[in-house]
Amino acid sequence: MYVAVWVNGKVLIKHKDKVEAKFLHGSIMRHVVILTLTSSIGLVSLFAVDLTDLYFLTLLNDQSIIAGLGFALSIMFFNMSFSIGLSIAMSATVAQKLGEKKHALARSLALDNFVFSILCTAMVATVTWVFKLELLSMIGASGPSLEHARNYLAIILPSLPFLAIAMSGGALLRALGAPKLSMLTMLAGASVNVVLDPILIFGFDLAVEGAAIASVAARVTVGLSALYFIYSKFDYSADFEYKSFTTNLKKILAIALPAMATQLSAPAANAYMTFEMAKFGESYMSGWTITGRIAPVVFAVVFAVSSAIGPIYAQNYGAKNYRRVEEILYSSCLFITGYCLIAWSVFYYCSEYIVTGFGASGDAAIFIKLVAIWIGPAFIFSGFLFVANTAFNNLGYPLLATVFNFAKASIGTVPFVLFGINQIGVGGVFIGNAAGNLVFGLIALVSCFYVIRRASLKTIINV
Question: What percent of the chain has pLDDT over 90?
Fold first, then answer.
């Protein structure tokens, strides 16, 4: 794992506890690529869990099952957003105290983050479980697909606290300087899922319930693996104290609440698009589900860029090297564009294999082929929005990131999708959303360059 640190005009490249000072000389792109590819491995394994469930379920040749899984995963997307926000709080609060050499407080914060994560997600899971039928109906589920989605959620929702432990545990391991261990926990979970899926789905004839049980086992594996590394390798144990918990909770909430609020914008947009897709029938919903599970695996690198470049932004911004900050943003966008063009080509030329491999037919196959044509631009401009928002968060403008996220999820989604449906029908759901990505991705990117240059001018004036 490489970590780039700007110090006195040089970048320190830390690898396996050895530090070597180098002048950049245009090597920012190299660092962006290395950090992004390392981060993407864990993300691929995480997305592969849902894709594994989907693949084995498609072998049952029942489109209502695939449609039901799509509805269920749309609801689960909301729940995962809470876990992501909580993991951000874990990383930020503990890493800060580690940097201040306050190790006892860092241990206490780690424990309290875990406790709060479990309590918060248990409450979210309970509310979702009680109202699962109403929530599924709201996004358009009905008939057999509603029943399959309900059965899936009934099993997997109680495991949400384990997902929170898994994600917060992975964040803590990265804060402790052990990204490889964090990656190993995710790979362990994906392996368990791959092994259990065919056994439960076909061996025990459990169908969608078997896929849910396999996913629960995967979450438990990741969560317990993370805890094992944290409390055995790092001996990060601490005694729980209620007074300390209430004190630390204020610090945790200060980060967790806005982080969760920001993360909820994407699943809100996804739920709306799922609602619109459901109007066109189960076959189109099957196509929507298949592309929705494959795309994150193929384009995982785009999601990884934002988490990888955050520290480099912050370090160079802290050193007031705005030219380098701007170069990071430019290099990130160039890398995203290049990667998406390659991934787009692969997705497009493999679309026939995707249709055949996942047993898609009729409208589902038509939709998959349509997505294959437009998926590249959709992810390119979505990636621009990701890196711009990462810059806002690390340059002291987190409110801008929140504004752009919610703007894209609302006015950047609903009117674009409605216009697309009105003009070209079901394809307008995806193409309309892609158009919204283009508009808001470019606006966010231009705004980000403006913020960086404004900060640079302020520094020059002050000097």
Answer: 60
